[in-house]
């Protein structure tokens, strides 16, 4: 047993105990985290690699932040693989091909003008079962009865044009307009919700403004359909990998048509109708304009009206792509055999923020297999809210066939237009939202929404059946592995932002769903940010369970088997899963070598392979929360970067004399410090001390004269160790990360 105190940068370690089987470090941050956060990351990464190198333990962490921080686990920067939400690699670019229909003209250099919507791609209307049947197609005919009671066919678009060209002064005019080319619904569509919205719910001036200014523009937009969309829109059918890209302007035009209910063959709710396996798209097919029972429905309509107001005022210049991913059974992971350790997965769990605010991450839509769910009906939960605050998402409902169990839909680039408050019945529109996310090289907003549908469960025993567990794992994995490199062992960025998937109306269990998503993320190698929607108990449960699994080096395959075994127990009840896992995981490691004798602090006798860091933040570091709230991309200014390099040198050179002033940091008088100055060392020397007896060549790589070089140079030359060694990989990553942190390039 020896005691070390590690003094790196401005982070101070205290009470460190090292013996052959465990490292127990208590860290106190002595300076405001605004400067320290990224060094702290570096340290955490190092600790992880250390634990893997020794192959005795996985890294676990519990952070007990003062100041009411809402998150646990690793910081969000670990989700991006960068300090900035926009530092992750872009998704594959928009490029027209046989399975990617691009409805606008892509300039030869691939770059779209920043604010000008791209021109439509030229093409010919296709009226068949592979493409969206357009209201403006010459094949779209409508039976009209003449005064003699005889019925003959008229071009539907002509009827629509004449109806929408007339003035529409109030909600009754609007209803009659829609009915004029949907005559069969004269007796069923009453537009009660629409009338209530415009005649009671909105202020008189608001309604007036809508009919005087906005609606005529929506009508014009709808009528521009033949100009704006010239090439056919393929249907994203089941069992295909297929993409569609549209300009935001084209989407607004399609939505304007849906607003006026112009799409042919989309009016029927009959099980035999052609589009039976597609979501509803005409706004009133599912009675969107009828509901009066709840204000939340009127608030959804307000979101839609706001969207139209925005897009007719200023035509958005970007594009959006929709990609269906379908992985056949043979290509799905063999879950029981997966060797992937869960402890490698960076996990961030937050109780206060929401998924749609997790910039830069793949945001999960808790979807209905018919996309949009009840957005055009009475629903008002996660998916519906997302679709009304980002209405461009709704156009997916026009062409996405119902999702199969092995399928997911990724939507990249949909802009957010509205703020909101509440949930379900309490949902309210809360004003305009200006989407500040940057555009990628293809002109898409850097917002990725992943639609995956959970199964609805009527009973726990069904949810815990082997088939159901496998189905949910596959579903999540198909989504999370979108655009990942199957050859790579490295973490894939950006990470996934998710939460209680399928745990509302679908009756799922949060303990199980969080674990399944953890496994799917680990398998797809994407970091996971989990948002518990205010539930701090769940947040802590998830982190505790993760720590347990990581500490015991549990793999995805093992956990799969444990859960399946649990599901075969007699009394499957949700409160017992975690207890069960705790028992089985702990007993599972009893076969490993008995713990060495140790007197270092440990709460539990079974924590044989624990590396645990308790993080204590002094009360002075109050701005951490605001830092993270804003997740500012540049915690470092350029000056800071230079200074920090300087400090590395200073620290390492002064290791012999710990009493020497450390220039910028005079906070070592902090009352928390109880270090033993004689043993104070720099981080990298400590690495050597700890690793030296394990692998001398490896430890050299980050040490001695090469230290600065390896910090400055993104070179793997010094790491000529066996490439397959996971620790080497990690070392590379650390070096890479350190280099990233100090890079002057904007990230
Ligand atoms: C970690 O350090 C803090 C501050 O010195 C102390 O209060 C706490 O008890 C320590 N925790 C452990 C597990 O030693
Ligand atoms: C942890 O799991 C990995 C992958 O299964 C394995 O290679 C390694 O030996 C395990 N380590 C321990 C200490 O069990
Ligand atoms: C879709 O693409 C994935 C690879 O990303 C492939 O494994 C799968 O077989 C493809 N699906 C179909 C139906 O071709
Ligand atoms: C373990 O340590 C205790 C005192 O800390 C000592 O009495 C005991 O003999 C040790 N056991 C072994 C196996 O070293
Ligand atoms: C440490 O810095 C203080 C002022 O910050 C200075 O007064 C003192 O002389 C310095 N001590 C050494 C050993 O350099
Ligand atoms: C050192 O800390 C004291 C308070 O602890 C502060 O007043 C002083 O400005 C600091 N000096 C430097 C150089 O940061
Ligand atoms: C980067 O590494 C090369 C050799 O590997 C060295 O010559 C060069 O000085 C290094 N650059 C910096 C900035 O340290
Ligand atoms: C009113 C209306 O548009 N009715 C159409 C609904 O869709 C069926 C086909 O699914 C058409 O035959 C109807 O004319």
UniProtKB/TrEMBL annotation:
Q: Name one Pfam family in it.
A: PARG_cat_N
Q: Which residues form a coiled coil?
A: none
Q: Where is this region: Disordered?
A: 587-610, 650-676, 693-728
Entry GO CC: cytoplasm; nucleus
Tagged with keyword Disulfide bond: no
The PARG helical domain, residue ranges? 202-324
The PARG catalytic Macro domain is annotated at: 333-539
Please provide the record's keywords in A-Z order: Hydrolase, Signal
Q: What is its EC number?
A: 3.2.1.143
Regions of compositional bias (Polar residues) in chain numbering:
659-676, 694-716
Residues in the signal sequence: 1-20
Q: Say which family it is in.
A: Belongs to the poly(ADP-ribose) glycohydrolase family.
This chain's protein is named: poly(ADP-ribose) glycohydrolase
Q: Which organism is it from?
A: Trichoplusia ni
Gene transcribed to yield this protein: LOC113497259
């Amino acid at each position: 047993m020896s005691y070390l105190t590690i003094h790196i940068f401005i982070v101070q370690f205290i009470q460190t105990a090292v013996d052959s089987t465990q490292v127990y470090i208590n860290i106190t941050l002595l300076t405001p985290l605004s400067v320290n956060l990224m060094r702290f990351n570096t340290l955490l990464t190092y600790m992880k690699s250390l634990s893997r190198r020794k192959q005795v333990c996985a890294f676990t962490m519990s952070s007990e932040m003062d100041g009411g921080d809402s998150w646990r686990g690793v910081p969000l920067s670990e989700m991006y693989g960068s300090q900035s939400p926009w530092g992750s690699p872009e998704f594959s670019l928009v490029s027209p091909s046989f399975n990617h229909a691009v409805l606008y003209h892509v300039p030869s250099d691939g770059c779209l003008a920043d604010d000008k919507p791209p021109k439509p791609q030229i093409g010919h209307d296709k009226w068949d079962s592979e493409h969206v049947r357009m209201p403006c197609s010459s094949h779209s005919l409508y039976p009209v009865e003449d005064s003699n009671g005889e019925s003959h066919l008229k071009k539907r678009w002509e009827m629509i044009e004449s109806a929408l060209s007339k003035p529409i002064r109030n909600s009754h005019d609007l209803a009659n307009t829609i009915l004029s080319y949907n005559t069969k619904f004269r007796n069923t569509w009453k537009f009660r919700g629409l009338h209530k919205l415009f005649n009671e719910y909105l202020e008189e001036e608001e309604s007036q403004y809508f009919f005087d200014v906005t609606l005529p523009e929506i009508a014009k937009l709808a009528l521009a359909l033949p100009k704006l969309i010239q090439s056919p829109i393929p249907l994203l059918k089941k069992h295909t990998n297929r993409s569609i890209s549209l300009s935001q302007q084209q989407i607004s035009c399609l939505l304007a048509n849906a607003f006026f209910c112009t799409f042919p063959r989309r009016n029927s709710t009959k099980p035999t109708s052609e589009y039976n396996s597609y979501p509803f798209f005409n706004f009133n097919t599912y009675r969107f304009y009828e509901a009066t029972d709840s204000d939340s429905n009127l608030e959804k309509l307000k979101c839609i009206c706001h969207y139209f107001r925005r897009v007719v005022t200023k035509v958005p210049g970007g594009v959006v792509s929709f990609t269906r991913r379908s992985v056949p059974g043979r290509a799905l992971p063999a879950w029981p055999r997966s060797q992937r350790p869960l402890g490698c997965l960076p996990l961030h769990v937050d109780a206060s923020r929401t998924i749609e605010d997790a910039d830069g991450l793949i945001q999960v839509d808790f979807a209905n297999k018919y996309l949009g769910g009840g957005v055009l009906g009475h629903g008002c939960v996660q998916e519906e809210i997302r679709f009304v605050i980002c209405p461009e998402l709704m156009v997916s409902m026009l062409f996405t066939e119902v999702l199969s169990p092995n399928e997911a839909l990724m939507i990249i680039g949909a802009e957010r237009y509205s703020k909101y408050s509440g949930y379900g019945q309490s949902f309210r529109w809360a004003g305009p939202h200006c989407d500040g996310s940057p555009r990628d090289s293809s002109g898409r907003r850097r917002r990725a929404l992943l639609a995956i549908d959970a199964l609805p469960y009527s009973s726990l025993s069904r949810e815990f059946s082997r088939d159901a567990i496998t189905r949910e794992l596959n579903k999540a994995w198909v989504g999370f592995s979108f655009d990942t490199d199957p050859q790579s062992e490295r973490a894939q960025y950006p990470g996934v932002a998710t939460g209680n998937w399928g745990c509302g109306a679908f009756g799922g269990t949060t303990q199980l769903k969080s674990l399944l998503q953890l496994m799917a993320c680990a398998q797809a190698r994407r970091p996971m940010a989990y948002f518990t929607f205010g539930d701090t108990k769940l947040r802590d449960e998830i982190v505790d369970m993760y720590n347990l699994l990581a500490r015991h080096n549990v793999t995805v395959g093992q956990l799969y088997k444990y859960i399946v075994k649990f599901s075969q127990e007699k009394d499957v009840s949700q409160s017992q899963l975690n207890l069960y896992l705790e028992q089985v995981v702990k007993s599972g490691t009893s076969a490993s070598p008995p713990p060495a004798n140790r007197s270092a602090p440990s709460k539990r006798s079974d924590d044989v392979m624990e590396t645990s860091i308790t993080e204590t933040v002094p009360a002075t570091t109050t701005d951490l929360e605001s830092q993270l709230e804003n997740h500012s991309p540049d915690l470092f200014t350029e000056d800071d970067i230079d200074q920090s390099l300087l400090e590395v040198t200073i620290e390492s050179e002064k290791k012999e004399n710990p009493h020497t002033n450390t220039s910028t940091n005079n906070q070592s008088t902090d009352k928390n410090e109880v270090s033993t100055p004689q043993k104070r060392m720099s981080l990298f020397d400590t690495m050597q001390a700890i690793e030296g007896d394990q692998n001398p060549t490896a430890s050299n790589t980050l040490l001695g004269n090469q230290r600065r070089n390896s910090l400055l140079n993104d070179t793997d030359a010094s790491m000529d160790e066996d490439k397959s060694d996971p620790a080497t990989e990690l070392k590379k990553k650390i070096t890479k990360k350190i280099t990233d942190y100090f890079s002057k390039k904007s990230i």
